[in-house]
Each structure stands twice: as C-alpha cells, then as structure tokens.
Predict the structure.
Amino acid sequence: MADETRNCLEMPDEIMGGMILQRLNAVEILTSAQKVCRDWRRICKDPAMWKVIYMDDGYDPRYDIEKLCKQAVHRSCGELIDISLRFFGSYDLLVHISRCSSKLNRLCLRSCYDITGCELSNAVKMLPHLETLELYDIDCCAEDIEAIGRNCPQLKSFTMKRDYTEHGDDVHAHAIANSMPALRHLMVVGTMDNDKVQAILNGCPHLESVPYLQWTITIATNHIHRSSVLNITGDEGVVYNATLDGKKVALMKPVHLFAIFTFTLSPVIGCQFLQRCWHFIENLFNGVDRCGQILHLIRWDFDFAILSINP
Amino acid sequence: MSKKTLTLMSKDKQLFNIEEHLAVQSVTIRNMVKEDGASSVIPLPRVDSETLALVIEYLNRQQAPEEDEDYVKKFVDERGEIPTLLELAQAALDLDIKKLMDAACMKVADLIKDFTLEEVREALRIENDRTPEEEKAIRDEFQWAF
C-alpha cells in the first residue's frame, strides 16, 4: 500500500498543475477543481493554465458559459494563444477575447450562430498575431473575408466549412486570393470553377512554395455538368503538375492533397459523377504511382467522396 | 560481454536490480550512468518500494515500439487507484520517464473529471483547508455563473 500520509499537497505543481489539472477543461476547472483546496485554487489562477482554452465539448445549462469563458480569458492575463468555442459566443465576448489576448495565434468558432461575419472581421482587428482561423457554420460574405484577411496579415491557415449542410456555398475565392497572401493551408468546401481555383493558386503563392510545410487545398464542386476534371501528375516524387480540364492550373508541391467532390444533384447526374470520379482516380493513380499511393478512400457515398493521397 | 546490471534503492532502503540498457529509459538514470558509470547503488529517496517495483515492471516490458502506446495505457489502467497513480507520476517525474508520467497523469485527470468536490478531496486525500469566509468569497465571485 502506498504511503498513507501522502496527499496531493505534497505533489509538485509540475504534476498537479502542469499535468493533471491542465487536462481538465475550462468549465471543469472554474466550476469544480479550483474549489477543492487552496493549493488547487492557486494553481488554477496561474496564467500558464490558461494559454489554451477549449470550450467546445458540450453545453451545460447550469452555467452561464459566456461568463465562464470571459473568466477563463481574464485568467490568462494576455497569455492566451489558442481558443475554441462551440455553440455559444457573441460579439461582446469576441471583443473581450480580442482585447485581452494580443498573442492569440489560433481562433476556432464552431456553430457560434450569434456571431456575424462582419462582427468577426471587426473583432480580429485586435489580433495581429492570428495565424490560424477556423470557421464552421459562420456566415461570411466576400467583404467579410477580405476584411479578415486585411486585419490578420499573418494568417497562415484558413478553414471555412459548414458542419450541418450537405453542399457547400459558393466559395469566395477571389476574396481569399486578394487578402490572404501568406496562406499555407486552406480548407474550404463549396463551389469553385477553374477561375476560382486559378485565383487562389495565384493569390496565395505560399500554398506551393514551401515544400516541406503541410498544406491542403480542398476543391469541391457541385457543378458536375460542367465536367471539371482535376488531373494531377507527379514529377520526381515531389512536384505535382495539376491540370483542370486540360488547362494547367499550377505547379504544386503537396504533402497531402485532398479532393472533395460534393454533389446534391439527381441520382442520374450522381452516377455520371461517379464515372467521372473513376476517371479522376485513374488519373491520380497514373500521376502518383511512382511516388505515392492513394492511402484511403475516406468516405464514398452519394454525398461526397474524399480521397487522401500521401506521396 | 554480459549485460550490465544496475541497483536502485527505494526510500525504504529496498534494493532492486535492473539491466542497464532497460534502466536508461529513465533520462535521470541515463545521465547518472553517463557521468560516473553508476557502479554503486542509485538511491531514489522519494520513491517507495511498491512504486519502484511498478516502475521496474514498466521498464522491463518487452513491447514492440508500435504497441508501446497501448501498453503504457493498459499498464496505468490496471492500476486505477488514484494514490498509486500519483506515486507513479511522481516517480516518473523524478526519473524522467515521460511516457509513463503522461499516461499516469492523464488517467488521474480522467478519473477526477466526473467527481464531486468531496469525492476529489477524498480520492486525493485533500483536506478542505478553506475557512468559511474564503468559501463565501469564492461563492460570491462565481455567483453569476450559476
């Protein structure tokens, strides 16, 4: 039996704070852990505990989640670098986060229905160091995206997706291309034609010029009848030659390349799409069989197909 | 050349033998061996014998690297008592065995997640050292949250 007199007060902060309490989420710490004893309260007030705040795993109606979030941000004393919100949040909260957290590097908003794209683009003005912005189910028009890009010149990763709809919107490709020149990682789902793909590849040169950084470009289309065929060929295992409908679109050096095709058209067109996809897959195989292989077909049904290639 | 053996001594003066090439998974021991060859007994004044026996059992595992993650998880799962896990975490910290420490701490965090305040205090043998005034101050501070 272990030493009976041992209690957690003898544990060094390194273990208790750094290793154990850190693994609890913000709500658990604020509503429970910090009340256990003085020592835990002291540890839970340490700004180092609050550099990363994830409040995205469910909603507890017992608490005013927005106030808890403000409290958590307040405790970081400006050290916050990574925050994730889900199912709550307002412009007021976003401004509070921005004002208090000039070091913020990553912001993820998921289903925060009370935040508009315009409000978001205003709030990020105060976040000059933001490098990663992930938006799920946030409505942003082209102007909002341009404003976000201008306000966050260091933005390296941008994600804009919908969690709950089957098909994507029209991608504001030109807004992205015009305002986010530092992008290395882009994840958008929606409709894109050749011009838009071309605009993004032109406007975001780092998507291709940093060969060892992982980047992703996701191309989605539900305009199947336009019969876009993306053809990718490999060159000495590193450089990929991409053509869209036979037109060269760019030289790319992807580590991972994902292609997502969504379609919500009639089954007939769906079937035609499947045939096209096989053509697409064959092209992929032809292009990469010397230097890589299709690792897996992540999902394959009538809604969408996702391919992942690892060279 | 026969395999070299090291001797570790726990807080309660019990001796444990372990082959050197296994013991050096501990960064602390590795540094000691590098510095002075560690020919004599290595004292571990903060680790009791039950815990040291567990650590030795862990170091002696014969796992392929790709199964190691699962093994260490299972290893701490089987020792699901919080006091034991805390001892283990402390020993792993002293000996600088990162995987073991991470797994033990993770397990403790998982266990206390769903506990009430009283359960946490009981499991970790913590006295509620707050005065009624302090209790009130905290309640007031968090009034708005409820």
Q: What stands out?
A: The longest strand of chain B covers residues 5-9. The radius of gyration of chain B is 20 Å.
